[in-house]
Amino acid sequence: MFAILALVILCLKPQHYVSMSRFQHYGMAFAIFGLGYILETLLSLKTLHKWAMGSYLGTGMLFGSAGLIFWFCPWLDVNLSVQTPETDMYRTILLVSYLAFSVGIGAIWARWIIEDSRKNEDSRKNEDSRKNESNVKPGEN
């Protein structure tokens, strides 16, 4: 639901109706998308695996914080403000930190996928062995 809402905001272009920069527009969509991940995690805490919880929370924090940064720092857009060495440095720091954070979240997602596939494979093997044991007739060994 939040992903659809974020897509609607991206398509509607609210900066045509309200005074905001393009980055604030993207920030609003990113923040709503991230909020969806965080709320999904909070609503299903009891059923989520630890890697699923970490990946959902991490992804929500990544998109939510990027949305807040875009909302509160519209000067990141080169066309919106005069660029100074400080803003260039700040932009580079943000870029590198978000790149590192996204690689870490990707690793958490990969760990969850690997562990989930192992669990499914083990359950299939156990199920197959139970079927084979039940198909063996007494006296056939």
Write the layout of secondary structure elements.
Layout: H1 2-12, H2 22-43, H3 50-72, H4 85-135
Number of alpha- plus pi-helical segments = 4
Q: How many β strands by DSSP?
A: 0
| Structural class based on helices, strands and sheet pairing | mainly alpha
Distance separating the two termini: 56 Å
Helix content: over 70%
Q: Could you characterize what this model shows?
A:
Helix 1 packs antiparallel against helix 2, helix 2 runs antiparallel to helix 3 and helix 3 packs antiparallel against helix 4. With 141 residues, the chain is mainly alpha-helical. It has one domain. The chain is elongated. The longest helix has 51 residues. The chain is built from four helices and no strands. The relative contact order is 0.10.
Quick synopsis:
This protein is mainly alpha-helical and 141 residues long. It has four helices and no strands.
Attribute tags:
elongated, 4 helices, 0% strand, mainly alpha, 141 residues
